[in-house]
Amino acid sequence: MGEGRPDVLQGTLDLMVLKTLESMGPLHGYGIARRIEQISEQALRLNQGTIYPALLRLCQRGWIRAEWGTSENGRRARFYSLTRAGKGQIEEETENWERVAATMARFLVKSE
Amino acid sequence: MSWLRMLMSRWAAMFRGGALDREMDEELRAHLAMAAEDYRRRGMNEEEAQQAATRDFGGVTQVRETVRLGRGVPFFENLRRDVGYALRQMRTSPGFAAVTVLTLALGIGAAAAMFTVVDHVLLQPVPYRDAGQLVQIREMNASGQEAWPLPWLDIAQWRQQTRSFQEIGFASGMNGRSFLEGHGTAVEVGGEEVSANFFPMLGVEPMLGRGFLQETPSVGPNRNSGTIVLSYAVWKQALGGDRNILGKTVRINDQPWTVVGVMPPGFRYPANTYGVAQVWTPVELGKSDEARGNDANNYFVLGRLRPGVSVQAAQAEMAVLQKGIGQEWPDADLRSVHSRVELEGYAETLVDKDVRKALLALLAAAGVLWLIASLNVTNLLLARGTARQREMAMRRALGASRWRIVRQMMVEGLVLSAVSGALGIGLAAASVKMLGHEISQSLPLPVPARPDAWILLALVGLTAASALVSTAWPAVVSARGPLEPALKQGGLQTGQSREHHRARGALVAAEIAMSLTLLMGCGLLLRTIYSLEHVPLGFRTDHIVVASLEIPAYRYTNRNLTADLYEPMLERVQHLHGVESAGLMTEVPLGHTFRMQIMMRMKGRSVVAMMKAATPGIEQVFDFPMAAGRFFRAEDTPDAPAAVVVNEAFARAYSPDKHNPAAILGTKLMGTERGAKPAAYSQVVGVLQDVHQTGIASPSTPEIEVSLAQTTPDSTFYNVLDEIAMDLAVRTREPASVVIPEIRDVLRQANPELATARITTMDEVVADSYGSQRLAAHLLEIFGGAALLLCVAGLYGLLAYVVNQRTRELGVRIALGAPRASVLWLVMRQAGGMLLAGVALGSGLALASGRLARGFLYGVKPHDGWTLAAAAALLLLSGTVAAYLPAQRAASIDPMKAIREE
User: Fold this and answer.
1) Is there a domain that residue B229 lies in?
2) CB–CB contact B63 A1 (8 Å)
3) Closest-approach residue (CA) in chain B for A32
4) Is the CB of B57 less than 8 angstroms away from the CB of A48?
5) What are the pLDDT digits (tens) for B689-729?
6) B648/B501 same-domain check
7) Which of B6-15, B104-113, B186-195 shows the lowest per-residue confidence on average (mean pLDDT)?
8) CATH number of the domain that A98 lies in?
9) How many domains are there within chain B?
10) Does residue A20 lie within any of the structural domains?
């Protein structure tokens, strides 16, 4: 864990977090991690802790913001929400991904 | 711009470390709690739920670390940690820290002190706009001697014809002393007459008022007549900073002047005047400016180059112009005297070339001392590095990178250097103050008080460089060595030891070499001083008290100074108790108060000579030997034939028979009365033997002396010789401390303004005349001594360390039967190797750099073998003594204990 991980993984996690927040609205760290697990239908078995460095990065870049609030069970937790810059970023990142996926697809077809 | 945002949030996070940590902990705890709750809802018990939650999370500590790393600026956080560690290290071994800090402080302080002096003399900016464009223009004869006078007519033609200069201004000093009447007392001021365009040419505007009106200079009264511009100091101190001063009248030497301007604080012209408040009046071109001749007024000419024109280009143009201008002089002699021009940047003219060279040489010497100090510290750190090898090895085993180790050692070095630098500033300031008197004798400056940007920059640079030089090597060595042997208990890293060893030995040898150079320089200067002190001067200097008087001549207008001031004063002094003889002289030999040069025609030849007035008593005071004829006597009154005395140099140059000084006796030299006929010209009545008048190392120059008694207000030289300065020389049996107050009383009675005259002994005057060599010798004594000390300490330290490391080995040797003497010899031989290598290298260095000092030496050559041998012997002796102690310790090792110990 930590620095030195391939950027692809970092980038994908960031995008997943952003998309999660887009669809779910403000959510705390645990909630985001659970949601990602659910969506990927358990295909991604990340250690939940890896989400925090990602959240820090996104905060530093100004794409999400953090606020202390109360969870469903009345527990004090930190809630993250998308900023306007973050929303714009989702579009850009999605385009990137689709481009990469398309290129990869061409590769895979060719090798057949 | 998200990276900018990133940077900003990182910066902010650095300062909130603690709070952010707590928040993160809370957040992570909340996460785990929520996860555990979910599991419990699914049916696990408390314990299982928590375990499951923790497992899902992954490593909490690692997450925390990662977030922390991503949060701040790692560079600065590491730096902070390293500095803290370095400070702790210093506290745990205070002795080592103290030695290192003191050594470095010595080096930094010396270099900083020297640099302060150099900065104030050489680097101080001249307080005018674009001073680099200001150039002094002088006329020269064919052999490069300055021509005099430089008349207005030449200046006018330059102004008209030149294309290299955008402005040419001219100035001349006010004759005599000037006293301005301020609130209360009379204050002495320095006065300069300047052309109307002078201040605009310098690029400085008055703070108050408009200054002089701009107009083309011409002969006769101009629009600025009677006006005056004051300096800030005069305005503030003597006139109380009166805001309404413009248009008011001030009196200088009883003459009224109307104030038209006050210059801003810090402005001065000439640029190298300090300590005297200044005033400026306009140049009035008069009858004596209408022709070219020896009677014309002399001016100092400064020009501002057109932008883009170089000094060389301007020089070339002016040289061509001067050919034509020189032809305008009335006779062939004068034409050749004024045939050339020389241009020199104004800033360069302010410092004597020799002084500049000497200062730079001294700066180099200080730099050498600094280098020695830094190398010494390197040595110390290398030694320490070996002791800390285990610590470093463990750090590396735990994951620190080599770069990290190096970086940490460099930070330690920086911290040490920073402390040393702070101490060094203190040392520098103290030493500059202590040497203040000597410095102000040799350099035309007051002692600098506040540091300026250059000095601070130099200090910071020195400190950083010290750190770098001292720690680079030890750091690299620490980081490089193999890991395993260092970690083993009791391991003696033999391979590395030898490398270390040779390195340290080389450092000590280098230190010795550099010390030898410094010591050699010191020795050469000491010999120079010795030679200077023993030059036979040609006159006595013992038991003579000299008072240098600045004459307030304006109080004696329409009176005869000789009769009203000088003779009564002399009379009273001669009656003081213990006075054997007393006399007055324009300037005593080797005094630096006032000098007058005269150029005249004698039998159709041009004569250049120094001129002085003297009373008969001077002969007894100084015991001047006469080569021929007689000195002045009481019979030389204004009614008697005018008498002059010349010296041998004059006789050699201008006498009909060069080898017989007596041949010039009886020659009618010149008219001293205004409008005197040749029949009444002064006659040469005596020839003085040559003495060193201007400097101990300078040869005698031609000199003419006139009798003070015969210099009446009708004499042409009265203004110059009588009204400006006079030295009173008194031969007395009493000690100086008794006589000086009595003389001061006499002076005060004669005229209150003389009470502040400088009174000293002739011995001091002589000593001050080679003050710059003395100062340099003192400085080199200090540098050389410090260098010697550092070397000796370095040598001792290294040998002590070596003996320590090899205790076991040496113990074994002794146990196996080696005689103790051989062990002693072993250690001494090591020392000897370093000493000899150092001395050999140093000799080469000293001889090579000796050439730099050539101009400064007297009576000894820069490659003098005796001095070198003496310096080398001193080093070798000290080194041997330093080596003896560890050698002795080695020889007295108890083999049993040594083998048993680790």
Assistant:
1) yes
2) yes
3) B31
4) yes
5) 888 877 777 778 888 888 888 887 777 677 667 777 789 99
6) no
7) B6-15
8) 1.10.10.10
9) 4
10) yes
- CA–CA separation, B489 vs B338, rounded Å? 87
Question: Which of B718, B704, B685 minimizes the C-alpha distance to B612?
Answer: B704
Confidence (pLDDT) at B333: 72
Residue B840 lies in a domain: yes
Give me the interface pTM, i.e. the ipTM: 0.84
Selecting from A48, A56, A85 the residue whose C-beta is nearest the C-beta of B70 gives: A56
In chain B, which residues have their Cβ closer than 8 Å to the Cβ of A57? Answer: 70
CB A3 to CB B70 under 8 A?
Answer: yes
Same domain? For B283 and B410 the reply is: no
In a domain, B745, yes or no: no
Does residue A1 lie within any of the structural domains?
A: no
Q: How far is B63 from chain A (nearest CA, A)?
A: 6
Answer whether A53 sits within 8 Å of B57, measured CB to CB: no
How far is CA B528 from each of CA B534, B852, B871, rounded to the nearest angstrom? Answer: 10, 15, 15
Shared domain check, B306 and B230: yes
Domain boundary at B310, B326, B349, which? Answer: B349
- What does the block give as tokens for B539? 């006159």
- Residues B128-174 have pLDDT tens digits of 888 888 999 998 877 767 777 788 989 999 999 999 999 999 998 77
Residue A92 structure tokens: 């850009």
- Nearest CA to B32 out of A47, A20, A27 is that of A47
Interval A52-84: pLDDT, tens: 988 988 888 888 999 998 888 788 889 999 999
Q: Which of residues 44-73 of B touch A (CB under 8 A)?
A: 56-60, 62-63, 65-67, 69-71
Start-end of H helices in B119-220 = 152-161, 198-202
Domain that holds residue B16: 2-72
Residues B719 and B787 in one domain: no
Element (H, E) at B820: helix B820-850
Are B34 and A78 within 8 A, CB to CB? no
How would you classify the pairing of strands B643-647 and B703-707?
antiparallel
Q: Is A2 part of a structural domain of the chain?
A: no
- Residue A47: domain span: 7-110
| Same-domain status, B221 and B298 | yes
